[in-house]
Amino acid sequence: GKMLDERLGKITFWTLFIGFHGTFLVQHWLGAKGMLRRIPDYLAADGFTTLNTVSSLFSFLLGLSILPFFYNVWKTAKYGEKIVVDDPWGYGRSLEWATSCPPPRHNFRTLPRIRSESPAFDLHHPDVAAAIER
After folding, report:
1. Tens digits of per-residue pLDDT, 37-77?
2. CA distance readout (Å), 133 to 36, 67, 117, 119, 128
3. Alpha-carbon torsion 70, 75, 77, 82, what sign?
4. Alpha carbon distance 119, 126 (integer Å)
5. What DSSP string describes 72-101?
6. From residue 108, how far is each of 7, 85, 97, 98, 118 by CA, in Å?
7. For position 108, what pLDDT does the model report?
8. Which label site among 25, 29, 104, 124 has the fewest CB atoms less than 10 Å from its CB?
C-alpha cells in the first residue's frame, strides 16, 4: 500500500469539518428560530435570509472539501512511495498491524494471544507489555 499525504489530509479534514458544521449547525439554528423543513421559498420578513445564505456558502466549502482528497488520492497513486514496513507508524495497536506487509494468505500461523486492548503493540514492544502486566 501507500500512505496519503498528511498535509493534504489535514486540509481535507478541516475544510470538510468547517464546511459541514457551518452548513448544518446553521440549519439547526434556523430550525430553532422556527423555520420548517423543506421550505422552497420564504419571505424576507421571516428573518431566515441571512442564515440561509451563510449555510449555502458553507455548503459550497463542504462540496469543495472533496477536491483536496481526490488530489491526494491521485497524487499518492501516481507518485507515492510503496510502504515496505509492516507498521509504518511504529505504534499500531490492533491486529492488522501485527501481520506482515503484504499480509500472507492466512494472517497468522497460530492465533495470537491477546492480553490487552493493544495486541499489536504488545507483539512489537514485549518489554513495555511485560512491564505493564506487573
Report:
1. 888 888 888 889 999 999 999 999 999 999 999 999 999 99
2. 57, 47, 12, 13, 9
3. negative
4. 10
5. HHHHHHHHPPBP-SS-TTS---SGGGTS-S
6. 34, 17, 12, 9, 17
7. 80
8. 104
In angstroms, rounded to a whole number, what is the distance separating the alpha carbons of residues 4 and 77? 9
Residue 121 contacts residue 91 (beta carbons within 8 Å): yes
pTM, to two decimals = 0.74
Cβ neighbours of 9 (radius 10 Å): 14
Give the 3-state secondary structure of residue 2: strand
Q: Which three cell numbers stand for residue 108?
A: 497468522
Cell of 101: 506487509
pLDDT digits over 18-28, tens only? 999 999 999 99
Cell of 41: 421559498
